[in-house]
Amino acid sequence: MDKMEGSFSVEDMQNVQINIGAVVKEVEEWDQPMGPFPYPSIATLRDWDFKLINRYRVFYSPICDRCTLCTYGPCDLTGDKRGACGIDQAAQQGRIVLLAVLMGCTAHCAHGRHLYHWTLEKFGDLPFKMGDEILVDAPLTRTITGTKPKTLKEFGPVLGYVEEQVAQLLACTHTGQEGNYRDFESKALHAGMLDSLGKEVSDMIQIIAYDMPRGDEDAPLVECGMGTLDKNKAILITYGHNLAGSAEAMFYAEDNKLWDKVDIGGVCCTAIDNTRIGEGLGYPEEIQTKYRMVGTKAKIAGAMGWWRKMVEANVMDCVMVDEQCVYTNALEECQEKKVPLIATNEKIMLGLPDRTNDPVDEIVDDLVNFRMPGVAIIDPIKAGEVGVRTAIAVKPKRADERKKAFITEEEFKKYAESCTYCHSCQFVCPPHIKIGDVVQEAAKGNLEPLSSTYEICVGCRRCEQACPQDIPILSLYAYANQEYIKNQKFKMRAGRGPVKDTEIRRVGAPLVLGTIPGVIAIIGCANYPNGTKECYDIAREFVDRGFIVTTTGCMAMDMSLYTDEDGKTIWEQFPGGFDGRNICNIGSCVSNAHIHGAAIKVATIFAGRNERANYDDIADYILSKVGACGVAWGAMSQKAASIATGFNRLGVPAVVQPHSVMYRRAFLGRTDKKEDWEIIDARDGSRVYCEPAPEHMLYVAESVEECMLMMAKLCFRPSDNSQGRMIKLTHYCDISMKYFGCMPPDWPIYVRHASDLPLKWKEDMMKELESKYGWEIDWKRKAILSGPIRKSDVSFDPTNIERKIRVKK
Amino acid sequence: MDKMEGSFSVEDMQNVQINIGAVVKEVEEWDQPMGPFPYPSIATLRDWDFKLINRYRVFYSPICDRCTLCTYGPCDLTGDKRGACGIDQAAQQGRIVLLAVLMGCTAHCAHGRHLYHWTLEKFGDLPFKMGDEILVDAPLTRTITGTKPKTLKEFGPVLGYVEEQVAQLLACTHTGQEGNYRDFESKALHAGMLDSLGKEVSDMIQIIAYDMPRGDEDAPLVECGMGTLDKNKAILITYGHNLAGSAEAMFYAEDNKLWDKVDIGGVCCTAIDNTRIGEGLGYPEEIQTKYRMVGTKAKIAGAMGWWRKMVEANVMDCVMVDEQCVYTNALEECQEKKVPLIATNEKIMLGLPDRTNDPVDEIVDDLVNFRMPGVAIIDPIKAGEVGVRTAIAVKPKRADERKKAFITEEEFKKYAESCTYCHSCQFVCPPHIKIGDVVQEAAKGNLEPLSSTYEICVGCRRCEQACPQDIPILSLYAYANQEYIKNQKFKMRAGRGPVKDTEIRRVGAPLVLGTIPGVIAIIGCANYPNGTKECYDIAREFVDRGFIVTTTGCMAMDMSLYTDEDGKTIWEQFPGGFDGRNICNIGSCVSNAHIHGAAIKVATIFAGRNERANYDDIADYILSKVGACGVAWGAMSQKAASIATGFNRLGVPAVVQPHSVMYRRAFLGRTDKKEDWEIIDARDGSRVYCEPAPEHMLYVAESVEECMLMMAKLCFRPSDNSQGRMIKLTHYCDISMKYFGCMPPDWPIYVRHASDLPLKWKEDMMKELESKYGWEIDWKRKAILSGPIRKSDVSFDPTNIERKIRVKK
Amino acid sequence: MAVDTTKNAVPFEMAQIPGPEMAKAYNTAVIGAIVKKAKRPLLVVGAELFEDPVMFDKAIEIGKTGVPIAATAHSIKGFVERGYTDNVTMIGLHPLTNYLRFKDWQGLDGKGQYDVVIFMGIFYKFASAMFSALKNFNRDIKRVSIDRYYHVNADMTFGNLAFDPEKYHEAIDEVIAKLAA
Amino acid sequence: MAVDTTKNAVPFEMAQIPGPEMAKAYNTAVIGAIVKKAKRPLLVVGAELFEDPVMFDKAIEIGKTGVPIAATAHSIKGFVERGYTDNVTMIGLHPLTNYLRFKDWQGLDGKGQYDVVIFMGIFYKFASAMFSALKNFNRDIKRVSIDRYYHVNADMTFGNLAFDPEKYHEAIDEVIAKLAA
Ligand code: SF4
Ligand code: SF4
Ligand code: SF4
Ligand code: SF4
Ligand code: SF4
Ligand code: SF4
Ligand code: SF4
Ligand code: SF4
């Protein structure tokens, strides 16, 4: 990061030159002293990382045994072989993990950097004010950099820091640099932390610039689903993560009163962010009149996993893509359906002609007359106008296309009957749908399998590519699900943004003591092992049990597609606060940073810790005391890797779906190693062997049932008081009984005292502790005399950091 | 890049606060107006890139048909298959290329960033002055950013720009971002340009801070080779690229008068930069007394490819590693030989304990007593002291080790005889040494094959890993080459740094007209297809022919290991200027930027073009008029990929060795497509079909003979005058006759006029043109009447850029 | 006649090609013999058994020959429902594999590390990755798949039998017979 | 008896495992027949022939059966020295492969794109990568290797014969015989 030193001249003061020896950020009205680690570099927090990985052993499952990264390669690294450069398999896996985390991290921080430039260009510098209920306003920025931005522009150095560190870290993946897996993992954790920071900056910028909700538990319910797109209007789809162009399309529609002619539907995170755009009421007065926002007028077309289903359903007239998570053959797929496509961001240009500097009329004319399948327009305002105008003008020209939206009955039959039951498709289907069988049934006239597996299909098109009969399987799906598509109309809560300080004040103590059993953060993408419904099931399970449930991104959209007996989506069933039995849609992928933020704020607001430049201390607090667990049940991309890694460095464990073995690395605890679970009592520096709480940091679950059990378990913390531990143990055992038919075998290790025991099984459990585990029980007092790993101690102050010891004993 | 705006407070002026609306870089004494593209972003120079790749078709040779980058994978992309994310094989290859180029680019810019922080910390801000002979002082910085740093600190924003763009580009490799191979390549070219910029900044910083030669054609001759390390002293090896720690070791030896006790030998680029440290005479007076430099006191132990041979030869007592190109099992290899290792840079920490904050005495004591095999010390000064002191103190303790440097005769025999001639080794040897045969001969007592293949072996140790008999093949090599090792003593010219303006003035016209037939830039690493000698052969061939030959990095070191009949190395044979029949060692890998710089300076100094923020114009000039060609004959790493790509964007072609197919991508022209070679005449905008000059941009040669032929050919430029073309054609045909036994079949396409024809074959060639190619010849006037692709036109002003047309016709 | 379990020896997810070291497909007699010969075998079963519940009965039959069972995911439920939990331990596949890769682990029963692990009924990609972890980081344990898929990262595996449930059942029965013999 | 050229069908550089699509090793009769049947075959020879000069003579024999030869690297020298340059063209392997991947290229003789390319005597890794380029980007051309290596990215190849020069020579002679027949 630049210290921003040098000699400058000031605009409008042409002949004044100020020569400055060293310019430092002004130290201003912030009562916290600077912590030990402002702007930490690669090695700064390495001690903390090593603490984590000493306990949570780095576990690798290579997906490829070879390396092909330099001209010495390919090298076979299987087993104990080394590459020509000397690298071994573990380090190589660490290297790939670091690369993946950096790819995810840069997706976020590059998004933030784009918004930074764009919002400054469009709105000028705006004060960074999150409102009276959010005074701890950029917790990651404060914790990591030790700074406290007061305007949007002041996030510049934060982004600069992220970028500098990213370059340092990427360099480490070069042949002949880092050579040890532990250091690769420390570097990956660093990158994960940078990822969280980049996300925070990105979301803070857009919250301020687009006047998004600043922690609104009553954020509006918005329309979600393919069925909500009004076929009587032109349908413009905005697809990706960066709302810049999409917002301009909306402003254009608003300014030109075109909402009765066009429906704007978002796909992926742009969808969520579209609906977060406010009314401009949060602006400083002087610009409130200058920029009119639109409020919640866009629709959520759907999550990333629905894209190809939308293509097949032919629900769009024009598409704008921006950045991230855009199927890379979107252009070809749109072209086939005569849907003009506009690329609006430098990151995705798809080989299209760059028309940024051409007149709007010409571009629209070219697109509407299909003279080219798409264009790149890097100016958001122009792109937005072209998008809306093209959608409206092309609609009549697409009448034929719209009519033949679905294949005909004859075509359907012909295709289905051409299946030779060769199984080729089944060798490539990620969720293992028995497509051959499904198609065979279809040929017999039974469409049920096509319906019941519609949501399980992830839309990867591998089956179509493998099919020697060229059967357009996704078209069969669309045909069989026409009614569903038409009626896919649900309500989702718009993204609320950060957690409020007031909310933290309310839940801080219950969380640390365990009486709110945990925060469950459901994040990620659309690559489900067994269908989208499982994300709804997870959410429902935990919100019902009184956990605080938060969600973001595609998960929030996908869980909106299911209703209870009363036809209510989860958003209609439960309130949107950061509290037990609530479910909040925090926002888009970058909003995940607010979950970190909430955890940090428990440490600062509830526990009064200084967060400033004090990352390891805060992470240690969270690891020891804040029962939170992330889950990425459809995790697809490198961003999911960086998000999880960022959670982990901050002491928050995460559970992921089985396809996530592609990430190659996990952090798993060994309960058979007592010494791994030694924790310091901050009161006197004494060492205490603790129960493994949490047991793992990054865990792949095989089934959604295991996922839920593990999440309940990973909410245990050494700081739980007896009531809290009792509640957590109850849920843990209860989920096990419900889905596994028995108690989890390791429940006793979480028992420190009889009052930790779930009331409903207390008697039986005590008997079992005595008979099976040989614990001494005082049956009169219903007390445990010996057996537990450690004794219950209400004032135990667990930490992993030496400098937190208050009095050395 | 941050525009560095905001509110600041000034040190020592605590209560003064300057609120600045917008701070902009001062526009100072620079007569050039700002060009069109300052600080270009991803899409800014895309038009130029597309011009390049329209002519030089992107050619991919996938090394792996699959992608394993996200949880949808692995995906098989063979042929026309697409991944689940929609990507096709071409785009996937482009993506991997972009990743590799970014890895290389960040290796360089992260190096620069480290030096930036470190030199500012150590020396404070220093004026950026390259001396009177170098007024165009940071050509890439000027051309790309449009700025002209006046102090070291002012390179900060340049690095910030590189880092910001790197983050943007890395984001593009995320699943679901860029989807078109052409845009991936445009992005890779952008990354290649950033790489060149990062290198320039790195080298400029170290030139200023360490008072390195500023373009000194008489840079001193330094000792090079394992045999130059004095076994009577302790031998400290400094290995890597970043001299910070190594320099401090030298300063410590100097200050404490320890040169009689310690020899410091460098490996890899640190070796070169060690010898570039000046006497401090280039400093401003006020600091000349403060920092004493050491001058050329270190030795060149060898290039990267010799590392494992050095390990086997046991020529070291202590090793300091810094960053880049360090064999990743250096720690294990050193530990085996009881050589303490000190990691001095965050990028390579090897899992070692971070002892940065421990007292020197304690660290040295631990190392000297082998209590730990190595330590990490991130403070260069402390690392330098520990390195020197450890080397000296450990030497006596290593007496036994030193004695058993080589295996004994019995061991040698035993090992050699244990070979079962199973061929396993031969399946893995990159240069295809028939090791089984070599070992069989050794068993018979014939050591010749071990000697004659010693330099061909790249030291990858794959054979040892594959050998079921566990034969330590590199130890056999060392045993058989003891005498060679002892006598490996040569002279190399220390790195001279940038090309001087005066030199450009001298060679500008001959270069553009072709009468100096070209600049040959020999760069790169130690992964030779057929031994190190070939780099000497290439250099010798071209310097002998009157080309300007420049070299850097490992190539410069490796070519120093050969002598002519008189026992003279190439540095002793030829002078070190930037001129025909000269060979200059520009410096280390980052010094490669000065070769770009020289090409840019031909455009600015000789042709008077404005370089400021004018990248495409300059690149167009170089492509059309500056006959230069890079060669990376031992190219190993991702840096070689980024270097070549950076050359390519600037219009300089490159030839690489056959292992370089691992880079997966080339840029190859099609001479059968006339339309690809249409060039604009800037005089009037007319379009001229030209000869393919240069024909390719990135080319893999199969043998060194083909490499040399291709380099000669790739020096052709449309701007060659008849004499120049005649000279170039002579070399081209002469090399072909010499190594191929015949004329190259395409010589006629380079003939525009009879005076283009080499004198020695003129008659025969004209006959052949007439008889075989049907050209019309006026035998009386010895003139060509028809036949050539275009007619000779001395005032033809070739360009590829519309805006360069002076008068539209 | 015995089922030919050596056919179709291509990865069930076609693109799962890790490198030069790839599993060999064996017939049931060889696989049965290897498991029988094992000193410390461990049968690892996953949640895919629920899709073909008769497989629980077969797993139990294997269990009854003395091979302890690790029930991953929620597969323990199938054993509980059948009243057979004697030598069945509930554990996640991920932590189980993590324990397996350490030479000093003492096993689910505390009696020592295993020498042969046998996978059955586990989500393909997950099983493949766990085999890979052992293949690369603990080569002392023999990796056997008796799942209906060709498992590239195992040492020994069947070819793909996923599309012929009967043959697959038969093959398992043959293995059981061999173990019980 | 014919040489068995189907053995040792593992990549000569062991780690060269690109993915699911890998070459099959064939015997000399099949390979000879495929080349003979080709409408537009092209023999591509490289500089490794210098290491085993008799191979130049064999290449010339193939050339004499009517198969045109592209001499890559400096291998043209071997033909010049033997006075055979009739249908031999000097060209780099890299640009040659680049031309081959375009369907509209008209061949070295301007008469049209080739349908079968046969590689021989080319640096292993380079040849492998060029086969890969064709495998992925022009699947109309059949890729045949008659080099002494198993070539994973070819369509048809020999197994590794690198350590048995005599057998390799014999195999080539068999191919020549088939072509000349
Ligand atoms: S980076 Fe190392 S392991 Fe990878 S190909 Fe190069 S030498 Fe082999
Ligand atoms: S598109 Fe759907 S059905 Fe086809 S392979 Fe992919 S997930 Fe399976
Ligand atoms: S690949 Fe095609 S033909 Fe074969 S089973 Fe699947 S749908 Fe039927
Ligand atoms: S949840 Fe995943 S797929 Fe959806 S927008 Fe975020 S990263 Fe992309
Ligand atoms: S990034 Fe694309 S091609 Fe690669 S594994 Fe994921 S879906 Fe497949
Ligand atoms: S160490 Fe040398 S001989 Fe052995 S495989 Fe590598 S290059 Fe060949
Ligand atoms: S691998 Fe070992 S035993 Fe086999 S031929 Fe090579 S040196 Fe001899
Ligand atoms: S030439 Fe290659 S190996 Fe040598 S220092 Fe430079 S990058 Fe490293």
Automatic annotation (TrEMBL), chains C, D:
Family annotation (SUPFAM superfamilies): DHS-like NAD/FAD-binding domain
Coiled-coil portions: none
Organism whose genome encodes this protein: Candidatus Methanocrinis alkalitolerans
Lineage: Archaea, Methanobacteriati, Methanobacteriota, Stenosarchaea group, Methanomicrobia
InterPro entries on file: CdhB, DHS-like_NAD/FAD-binding_dom
Gene3D superfamilies, sorted: TPP-binding domain
Protein's recorded name: Acetyl-CoA decarbonylase/synthase complex subunit epsilon
Family under the similarity heading: Belongs to the CdhB family.
Task performed by this protein: Part of a complex that catalyzes the reversible cleavage of acetyl-CoA, allowing autotrophic growth from CO(2). The alpha-epsilon subcomponent functions as a carbon monoxide dehydrogenase. The precise role of the epsilon subunit is unclear; it may have a stabilizing role within the alpha(2)epsilon(2) component and/or be involved in electron transfer to FAD during a potential FAD-mediated CO oxidation.
Source organism, top-level taxon: Archaea
One Pfam family here: CO_dh
NCBIfam families per the UniProt record, alphabetical: cdhB (TIGR00315)
Gene: cdhB
Subunit structure: Heterotetramer of two alpha and two epsilon subunits. The ACDS complex is made up of alpha, epsilon, beta, gamma and delta subunits with a probable stoichiometry of (alpha(2)epsilon(2))(4)-beta(8)-(gamma(1)delta(1))(8).
